[in-house]
Give the backbone structure.
Amino acid sequence: MPIVDTTVPMTPLLCTKTINALTVRYPSCRSETLTYSAFGRPVRTLVIGNGPRKVLYSAAHHANEWITTPVILKFVEDFAAAIESGGQIGGVDARSLQETTTIYTVPMVDPDGVALVTGEIAQGDPQYVQAQAISSEFPAIPFPNGWKANLLGVDLNLNYPAGWLQARENKFAQGFTRPAPRDFVGRAPLDQYETRALADYTQAVDPALVLAYHTQGKVIYWQFQDYDIPGARQLGERFAEISGYELAETPFLSAFAGYKDWFIKVFRRPGYTIEVGAGENPLPISQFDEIYRDNLGILVTAAMG
C-alpha cells in the first residue's frame, strides 16, 4: 500500500508523518530538519540516491500551492519502490539512477502557510486570528484560500537576494508594503527562517540544478535577467517537450527575488520554476494525477542531466 496519500490535502502534519514513514520503509530514503518556522513547524528534507550528481527539488514555497508537496513525495516513494524491486522510474533503471545521482528535496518550504490554507489551523486559533487580521487589510484577496505567504505575512519566494530591491519596488507599487497574504517581500533578503534555511542548505548541497515547484499555468520559467547559463534553455525545452508545458520568460513583475533567481545568480547553473496544473489556487486534489503524469519525466530528466 502506498505511503503518500494523494487524495487529501497535504497538511504539514501529514507531510511530516509521510516523510517519517518513507524513511522507515525504504533504506534509500533519509531526512533531516532544516529549521523550524516562526510557529514551530519543521521544514524537512527528503533525500534519495547516493550518486555524485546532485540536484535539489523544492515545493510549496507558497501556502496555497500545497499540491506540489505530494508531487515530490510521490516521486521519491515511486523511486524508492523501484530501487527495491529492481524496476524503473519514468522509464529509467532506478538502481542505476540511484548510483549516479543524489536527489535532495524540500517538499514543504512554507509549513505555517500551508497549515492555514489546508485547515490544519482551526478558526479561532491564535495563529488563524493573526493571519485573519493581516488579511483584513487586503479585502480583495480571499481568505484563507488566497494566502501565499508564511504566517508572518512574508511571501517566501520574494525573499531571496536576487533583485530583491527591484521586487520590493514592484510590490510596494502594488500596495504590498507591509505583511500581507501575498507579495510582501519582507524587511530584508533572507530574513525568514524558511528562506535562510533553504539558502544555506542549497549552499551545502551545491547542486548542479534546482527545480522549484509552484502552481499554476502549466509553464516553465528558466532564466533570470540576462544571465547566460550554458545548456539551461535546451534542458528547459526538453522539460517542455516531456510535460507539454510552455517554456516562457518570467513576467517582469514576478522576475525578481525568487529562489530559482537566486540560484541562477549565485551558482550560474540551471534553475527552473515549474508552474503545475491549471485553474485557481489552491488547485483541487483531483488534478493531482494529471500533474504527476506531466511532471514525472521532468523529475527524472533533471536527475539524469
Q: What stands out?
A: The chain has a mean pLDDT of 97.
